[in-house]
Amino acid sequence: MAVDLSPSMAACEKDAEALRFIEEMTSNVRSVQQRVLMEILTRNGGTEYLKRFDLGEEDPLSAFKAKVPIVSYEDLQPEIQRIANGDRSPILSSHPISEFLTSSGTSAGERKLMPTIQEELDRRQLLYSLLMPVMNLYVPGLDKGKGLYFLFVKSETKTPGGLPARPVLTSYYKSDHFRTRPYDPYNVYTSPTEAILCPDTHQSMYVQMLCGLYMRHDVLRVGAVFASGLLRAIRFLQLNYEQLAQDIATGTLTDKIKDRAVRDSVAGLLRPDPELARFVTRECSSGDWEGIITRVWPNTRYLDVIVTGAMAQYIPTLEYYSGGKLPMACTMYASSECYFGLNLRPICKPSEVSYTIMPNMCFFEFLPHGDVECDGKAYSHDELVELADLEVGREYELVITTYAGLYRYHVGDILLVTGFHNKAPQFKFVRRKNVLLSIDSDKTDESELQKAVDAASQVLRGAGATVVEYTSYADAKTIPGHYVVYFELMSSNAAISNNKVMMEECCIEMEEALNAVYRQGRVGEAIGPLEVRVVRGGTFEELMDYAISRGASINQYKVPRCVSFTPIMELLDSRVVSKHFSPRCPTFNPNGRVTTTTI
Q1: pLDDT in tens, 571-591
Q2: Which stretches make up the GH3 C-terminal domain (predicted)?
């Protein structure tokens, strides 16, 4: 669907300028991309890494495309480690590395250190500055209220060489771009900056929730980075509403909030409000949490959360808490390596979300997905496609070259081209590559596992139950090995987890939804029956707390869809309340013949 970004439709002149910039960038994709690559090679041509490829001065762009290989993080790890240990020579970037941005560590194992430079903050801020001008086209009047956003930082660490190492959002929130941002009526938060910057997650969440309750009639949008973060905030309200109501009734702040800057930041807001305290108690003690967001914050226009990719499984729960009345806006596409683009139709169905790549952010290349079956080291230069040459309907793997010193870096995201805005491709995020369960020759990725969980959810929905959270692992200890999927359920019927018939139906429906190679393995007895283990409520919050205690960022944390780390598996197994196995093999159709086997 075409998007009209005419500056004449802008809410103000500042918005009009932003819309003109988007139109200029997306109308000149090829020339902007060539300029970006030339700027990167000109400034970084003297680095140790690029000098290895002898790009020359006559035609560095062609030399780059012919000589520089596609790399993974593991390929760059020796250079990154040298920088982390204190080597200040121009290894990857001619500009000084200012800090390392850490990955969340939940997508593909241990956390990674992504080198960055100071000016990258300007590029990230530029993309942020485009979000509200687009949103204002769809939701007018946002300057008349505030946003309740649950945002958090993590205490940073230092590398052996003394450089900060922290998540990308912690870097941004601690920067002057965020801390000393000028007043913008379209971007006012209920949370004081001091609360957002508080490293103690409980204190930060408490004060952000308290401010949101005091200003509940001013709130026009509610959000967090990921959908899981907003659900964690609702869970926090469930567990702490009594203390919050008490503080509101007395106009005081609990002694549990120790951070002096945080306490000072809300001193002017606190006032006794017995009526509001009674309202909070009444709404939260009734046991009815359906539509709680729109009841507590009645003027909310939309939820601002990422619900694409692995976050899609939170959509039913968010719909429950919002009463099915609020759109879910996914506004931007970004990673620790680079910020990529934005959603030009933010108020659309989650299934229709497409992100428009902004060609000024870095140099983009793409590997047609499905054409090769090897890891990043074996890819051929000839397979790479540039941003301006992509085809609608095809899936690609993202490869980037950044100003900060990543060259033809294989990000691991798989994207589907859904269309174009002017000359800029628009993408649906499909999945992260290589998030797999495997017992034999079967390979189940994240999107296939999500499809299977959706099938089980359909069964549970008929009984008024919902899958709140899930993860899995391939159990190779049994003979044959089998898939184990952990479910945390939400239901008014506590006995649902012990309903043997229903839970077994969930198991078989999941197997029927998995790919043909898996089902063939089941029929051929190379794979054992799928097992669902139901864990008690709150288990996945404990899992998140455990991950945060080991260094994960609350902003970037995503529940790992496959686990193998022994302490995590022990935690999950210690919370299991019931176990269920698929009662039969799924159907498999070799040569047009359906085979069904009963155990």
Answers
A1: 999 999 999 999 999 998 754
A2: 448-565
Tokens of 235: 């869970």
Global pTM? 0.78
Distance separating alpha carbons of residues 206 and 213, to the nearest angstrom: 11
Task: Please report, for residues 231, 431, 519, 570, the alpha-carbon distance to residue 315 in angstroms, rounded to integers and kept in the order given.
Answer: 10, 17, 28, 28
C-alpha span between 581 and 47 (Å, rounded) = 57
Tokens of 304: 């601002």
Largest CA distance in the chain: 75
Cβ-contact 340, 333 below 8 angstroms: yes
Q: What is the pLDDT of residues 118-172, one digit of tens each?
A: 999 999 999 999 999 999 999 999 999 999 999 998 778 899 999 999 889 999 9
Q: What is the pLDDT of residue 42?
A: 95
Cα–Cα distances in angstroms (integers) from residue 495 to residues 78, 492, 503, in the given order: 53, 9, 11
The structure tokens listed for 479 are: 């003979």
Q: Which residue from 120, 132, 497 is spatially nearest to 339, judged by alpha carbons?
A: 120
31: left (phi over 0), alpha (psi -120 to 50) or beta: alpha
Q: What is the 3-state secondary structure (H, E, C) of 120-188?
A: HHHHHHHHHHHHHHHHHHHCCCHHHCEEEEECCCCCCEECCCCCEEEEHHHHHHHCHHHHCCCCCCCCC
CA torsion, ordered 462, 466, 471, 472, to nearest 10 deg = -20
Q: Give CA–CA dist 80/301, Å, rounded.
A: 44
Which helix (H) or strand (E) segment is 357 a member of?
Answer: strand 355-357
Peptide bond into 316 cis (omega under 30): no
Cβ-Cβ contacts under 8 Å for 495 (sequence gap 6 or more): none
For residue 231, CA distances in Å to 135, 332, 375 come to: 23, 20, 36
Q: Which spans in 332-378 are helix H?
A: none
Tokens of 234: 């609702």
